[in-house]
Design brief:
- The protein is an alpha/beta fold.
- The chain contains six helices and six strands.
- The chain has one domain: ABC-type transport auxiliary lipoprotein component (Rossmann fold).
- The longest helix has 19 residues.
- The chain is globular and about 50 Å long.
């Protein structure tokens, strides 16, 4: 299965996998680089919101996001800051657009934004480009949205936004509007023996005002290229009806 670094316990016990066959990845998928990060944890009950509370969800499950309760509201979308690929994926020619880190982040942001606006047009998504403009207009007040440490939210045990991320997001939504923040926390790619590319995307929706994580999902998809795999993963979060 695809795993993100920092999500295993010290004993390297694997996280529970999704028991539904359609969501389980084969064992020959990506095992992402053994990079570890110190993750801050915060305890407390997550307030009920339109999606199922994050603490009631299994960490490795894919959960669709209901955007109807968010209709008409501004929702800030943080830029992704963590994109990784295994050696098999990186050696494939289709991975070329993702070999440069900056290009990989921008490309992932673009595909995520396209899905949000295409499948959730009723929501006013405040996309990363606009957040960066806001930060430039308010230097010293707003943190750089690319440097907030949002990748830590890939850790499934986090049911609250840890500081200083929480305080940064509270200031951000005070200017961007609304209270919810959509966080693409981490993206991983792998390629199996058949040549199929697999994508795993960790996503979080959080309430910036009270710090609660109200929705969490690990979206998985596969395709003939990283773009196709990422789009397939996003389609599981925002299915067309």
């Amino acid at each position: 299965m695809i795993t993100f670094p920092g999500l295993q316990s010290p004993g390297r016990r694997q996280l529970p996998t999704n028991r539904r066959p359609s969501l389980r990845l084969p064992l020959h998928c990506l095992k992402v680089l053994g990079l570890s990060f110190a993750l801050a944890c915060s305890r407390g009950a997550t307030p009920a919101a339109s999606p199922e509370p994050a603490e009631a969800q299994k960490p490795a499950d894919t959960h669709g996001l209901s955007v109807a309760p968010l209709a008409g509201q501004p929702v800030a979308v943080l830029p992704i800051t963590m994109v990784l690929g295994d050696s098999a994926a990186e050696s494939d020619s289709s991975y070329a657009p993702y070999r440069d880190r900056r290009m990989a982040l921008r490309r992932a942001d673009s595909l995520i934004a396209e899905t949000l606006e295409g499948r959730g047009p009723e929501v006013h998504w405040v996309l990363p480009a606009e957040l960066r403009k806001m930060a430039r207009r308010a230097p010293g007040m707003l943190s750089d949205p690319d440097q907030m440490g949002q990748a830590m939210m890939r850790a499934p045990q986090l049911t609250k936004l840890p500081d200083p991320l929480r305080s940064s997001l509270r200031t951000l939504v005070a200017i961007a509007g609304g209270r919810m923040v959509f966080i693409p926390a981490a993206l991983g790619f792998g390629r199996d023996a058949s040549g199929q590319v697999h994508a795993t995307l960790s996503l979080v929706l959080a309430d910036a005002r009270n710090g609660g994580v109200v929705w969490r999902s690990v979206a998985t998809g596969m395709g003939t290229s990283p773009d196709a795999a990422l789009n397939a993963a996003l389609a599981t979060i925002f299915p067309t009806e």
